[in-house]
Design brief:
288 residues; 6-stranded mixed sheet; binds magnesium ion; 4-stranded antiparallel sheet; alpha/beta; binds adenosine-5'-diphosphate
Amino acid sequence: MTAEETENKSLDELQIEQLEHSDPHRTEQYKSISKGEKLVSIQNLSMVYKTDESETVAIQDFNLDVMKGELVSIIGPSGCGKTTILRAIAGLLKPTGGRIMIGNKECIGSGPDRSMVFQDFALFPWRSVRKNVEFGLEIAGVPKEERKERAMRYLKAVGLENFANSRVHELSGGMKQRVGIARAMITKPDVILMDEPFGSLDAQTRNIMQASLVNMLAKTDTTVIFVTHSVDEAVYLSDRIVVLTKRPAHIKEIVKVPWLRPRDRSSPECTAMRKEILGELEKENVMN
Ligand SMILES: Nc1ncnc2c1ncn2[C@@H]1O[C@H](COP(=O)(O)OP(=O)(O)O)[C@@H](O)[C@H]1O
Ligand SMILES: [Mg+2]
C-alpha cells in the first residue's frame, strides 16, 4: 500500500472536517465581544439518534451560555450526552433541534473559530509529530517554511520540540495529547472543545497536563469547553462547572470556581468544593 493509500484509508473524516476550514491568517473573528461577554450560546439543543431498531434522545432542550475567555467544564454521568454537546458545537453533527450561536452567527458545520481535542488523540500515525501539528496550516495553504516555524513554536509550548521528527507511535499517551493540543491551538481558534482529553492518562501525567494547559491558556483569551469525568480536574481548571443529570442531560447545577489559577488542589476550599460536587453526582447516579 502506498503512503497515499494509507492516508486515504485512515483519515478520520471528522478530523478533516474540523481542520480543513482553518485559516491561519484570519484576524480574530469576535473582536467586538469583550472578555467575559457571551460568546457561545447553546439554545434549546436537542439530539435524537435514530437507528433501525432504536431511538436515543441524547439531548433535549439544553441551554448554556459560555463567556469569552472562560473555561467551562461539563461533568455528568456516563452516556448523559456530553460528547454529543461538544460535537454539536464543533459542527461535527447536526442537531435535531435548537441552535448554537457563536457571537451573533449561527454555527452550522465546522469552522476555523473552533477546534476539538479528542480523548483518543485522533492523530495521523503516518505523519511525524511536527507534520501532525502542521496539518491545519497545510490545509489552509500556509507556505512550508512558515508552517514549520509555527509548528515548532507550538511544539515548544507543549514541551515537545525535541520530538518534532518522531512518529506518533513512539510517544506516550501524555505526549500524544500534547500533540493534539498543539494541533488544536496552532490555528488560533476562538473556542477549543476538549472531550475528556486527559481521561486515559495516569494521575501524575494528568496533573502535569492540566498545569500545562493552565499555563498555555493564561497567555490567550481562548474560550474552552472542557468535558471531564474528574471532579478534581474540573475544580482545578474551571471558571464554572456545569453538573449534568443523567440522559437526556439537563443542568443540575452550575458551580462558580472563584479562585485564580494556578490553584492548589489540596487547599481546604478545593477539597470542600470537590466534596460538594461529588455529592451531587452521586445523588444523580443513585437516582436511576
Ligand atoms: N452515533 C450515535 N448513534 C446512536 N446513539 C448514540 C450515538 N452517539 C451517542 N449515542 C448515544 O447517545 C447518548 C449520549 O452519548 P454521548 O454524548 O456520547 O454521552 P457522554 O459523552 O456523556 O458519555 C448515549 O446513550 C449514547 O449511547
Ligand atoms: Mg463522551
